[in-house]
Design a protein that fits this description.
343 residues, alpha/beta, 6-stranded mixed sheet, 5-stranded antiparallel sheet, 11 helices, 29% strand
Length: 343
């Protein structure tokens, strides 16, 4: 049974300029224990979707079923109880600035009626898990962005949630801090078996953390599946754009366009099953034609390194099809249809 089942969900808003369709017929199944990414450009409907998952936004059409319970069938009191099982962390942290770190984590426990001693003991244990027990008496203004997010994660865990929704939780953080937060979320998923839903516009976050992903465009699901499959074989333009444009900071670009211009572009992906020979050099020697390497990069997909390159063939080449088949025969994934993506 799905932990979260979204069926034919649509959400419209009435504005001064007319009706806005934020979500259109979205269907997703998120299994227990998944780390599931929902990604898209700005305005794709990601934040609306995450708010529909816990019924902070009521869908216009369709259903959301959480842990076997259809949320539209719940009373307001039942929804409040259901939301205890759904923790949330945000880009802006949403900490109480006038309260210290310990009291921020205690806050949801006080709301549940926990006694002060019991709440503080549990909060200190959670702060230990996120590596901030020594900052229990500090105030949010005294913390870095990464530390604030760790406090927010500890607070979200205080209610013992079964599901954790992360809405652009790393967007305000630098790359190194982002990696540490993603590692913390991965550890929480492993140790507590919490299902995590990650809302982001950064494909690098999805690639590093998630096992499955849904890509939204214009409020609709453009593509969904295993992250590794979509990384190797993106089927839609929006998936290709998100993958190609979200290059790692350490990626290398090569510009030899004076020699080769306006030829067909392809994206190739090396995995652990690919040939270890110098494939590109051997292809050039075999066919006697140069290729332009527009970009070379290595990305971490679920803990496994995958290399990728963007190649451009000579526009006058008559051997392009044979060269692509040569690459496939060496175990490389060859992606086409990227002419509309800028580099």
């Amino acid at each position: 049974m799905s932990e979260i089942l979204i069926e034919n969900l649509s959400k419209t808003f009435e504005t001064a300029d007319g009706t806005v369709e934020a979500l259109k017929n979205v269907s997703l199944s998120i299994e227990e224990g998944d780390i599931y990414g929902i990604i898209g450009m700005s305005g794709a409907g990601k934040s609306t979707l995450v708010r529909c998952i816990n019924f902070l936004e009521v869908p216009t059409e369709g259903t959301v079923t959480v842990r076997g319970r259809k949320l539209s069938d719940c009373t307001e009191k039942e929804l409040l109880l259901m939301r205890r099982d759904i923790g949330m962390i945000f880009q802006s942290f949403n900490l109480l600035m006038q309260k210290n770190v310990l009291e921020n984590v205690c806050f949801p426990l006080y709301i549940q009626g926990k006694k002060k001693k019991e709440a503080r003991e549990k909060a200190l244990g959670l702060l230990d898990i996120v590596g901030l027990k020594d900052r229990a008496k500090a105030y949010p203004a005294q913390l870095s962005g990464g530390q604030k997010q760790r406090v927010a994660i500890a607070r979200a865990l205080a209610s013992d949630p079964k599901i954790l929704l992360c809405d652009e939780a790393t967007s305000a953080l630098d790359p190194q801090t982002t990696s540490s937060i993603l590692e913390l979320l991965r550890r929480i998923n492993n140790e507590f078996k919490i299902t995590i839903v990650v809302i982001t516009h950064q494909m690098s976050v999805v690639q590093e953390l998630c096992t499955k992903v849904a890509i939204l465009k214009g409020g609709e699901v453009a593509e969904s599946g295993l992250v590794s499959d979509i990384f190797a074989h993106p089927k839609t333009t929006v998936a290709r754009e998100l993958i190609i444009r979200d290059a790692n900071p350490g990626s290398r670009s090569f510009d030899t366009r004076e020699k080769i211009r306006h030829g067909e572009k392809i994206r190739i992906v090396f995995s652990e099953t690919s040939s270890f020979e110098p494939v590109i050099a051997n292809m050039v020697l075999t066919f006697g034609e140069p290729v332009n390497i527009l970009r070379a990069d290595t990305k971490n997909i679920g803990g496994i390194a995958h290399g990728e390159m963007i190649l451009e063939f000579d526009k006058d080449s008559t051997q392009t099809a044979q060269m692509k088949e040569y690459l496939r025969s060496r175990g490389l994934a060859v992606g086409e249809g990227i002419e509309d993506v800028e580099f």
